[in-house]
Amino acid sequence: MKIYIAGHGTYGESVYSTLKFFKEDIQNIDILRFSNSYESEMEEYIKNNSNDQLIVITDLLGGSVNACAMKLLQKYDFELYTGVNISFLLEILFRDSISKDDMNEIFTESKKQTIYMNDYLRRFKDDKTD
After folding, report:
1. Which of 7, 16, 86, 87 could lock 11 by a disulfide, CB 3.0 to 4.6 Å apart?
2. pTM for this structure?
3. Is the separation of the CB atoms in 4 and 49 below 8 Å?
4. Contact 100, 75 (CB under 8 A)
């Protein structure tokens, strides 16, 4: 399994750095360094890794990097996720291989971690006083 993280600015480097905090020895993640030639670089990477189980992560739904990856989905076989959080990436990072069903379950569970903490804490306090 290979993971390819692509996004604007230093998104890929920042995510990779955070993941290395939790797992120092990362061998299956590559990043796209956003540049004027990102479209051809992304296609080349995806084409060269089409024999692997490839998971592509983009930063922003509808952004230029995501749009490029969506276009490449019509030519190549890979899994594309966008707007994911670190817990999603950590869950798949610590696995050697993963099924599409597992990926969808992990993705669904990771979305539950996007929380407005002010309301969460208020509800927690209210529950403790009942």
Report:
1. 7
2. 0.89
3. yes
4. no
